Amino acid sequence: MEIINLGTADGLPPVDWAATVAKLEAGSTPGQDAINSRTTWLSTVNEDGSPHVTAVGALWVDGTFWFQTGAGTRKGRNVERDPRCSVAVSIHGADVVLAGDAVRVTEPGAVARIARAWADQGWPAEPDESGSGITAPFNAPAQGPPPWNVYRVEPRSAIVTLTAEPGGLARVRF
């Protein structure tokens, strides 16, 4: 991993990536009254090359973002055709954009572990009968019917913008 301080020209100190990861692991949000305080944004590539951006219920587990979606959704079709994507989120004191490739996860143990992580955060997800997808009594309507596919973002790079003093800007290459 390489951390590049993009704020040097402005005299900004290096970004502490470990502190950013700790906030992501803790599920940190900018604050209860902050705009989009709980929104994570997934960007995928449409068939014509244009961007598709949508809100998703993503988790930070094992050093990267995980998300789920139905196979027939636009984001599901997009990542199956072209896995390049980015995930953006605001946490307390920072904005984070992670770029990488969406990798579908079908291994039953991994799917069960991620379903438990979602359940621990209040969404009653569980593995489907095959063990390779998840199901729940409810989901966002745009996800389509269950079962839903689980994806891990294999990170290539991240941009971290510190939003609190003293500020900072960094690119992280994985």
UniProtKB/TrEMBL annotation:
Region Disordered: list its residue ranges. Answer: 122-141
- Please give the SUPFAM superfamilies that the UniProt record associates with this protein: FMN-binding split barrel
Keywords from the UniProt entry: Oxidoreductase
Q: Which Gene3D superfamilies does the record cross-reference, listed alphabetically? A: Electron Transport, Fmn-binding Protein, Chain A
Q: Which domain of life is it from?
A: Bacteria
Q: Where is the Pyridoxamine 5'-phosphate oxidase N-terminal domain?
A: 37-126
GO molecular function annotation: coenzyme F420 binding; oxidoreductase activity, acting on the CH-CH group of donors
Show the InterPro entries listed in the entry.
F420H2_bilvrd_red/Heme_oxyg (IPR052019), Pyridox_Oxase_N (IPR011576), Split_barrel_FMN-bd (IPR012349)
- Entry keyword Ligase: no
Pfam family membership, one: PNPOx_N
| Example of a GO cellular component annotation carried by this entry | cytosol
Q: Is Hydrolase among this UniProt entry's keywords?
A: no
- What PANTHER family has UniProt attached to this entry? HEME OXYGENASE HI_0854-RELATED, PYRIDOXAMINE 5'-PHOSPHATE OXIDASE-RELATED FMN-BINDING
Q: What is this protein called?
A: Pyridoxamine 5'-phosphate oxidase-related FMN-binding protein
Species of origin reads Pseudofrankia inefficax (strain DSM 45817 / CECT 9037 / DDB 130130 / EuI1c) (Frankia inefficax)
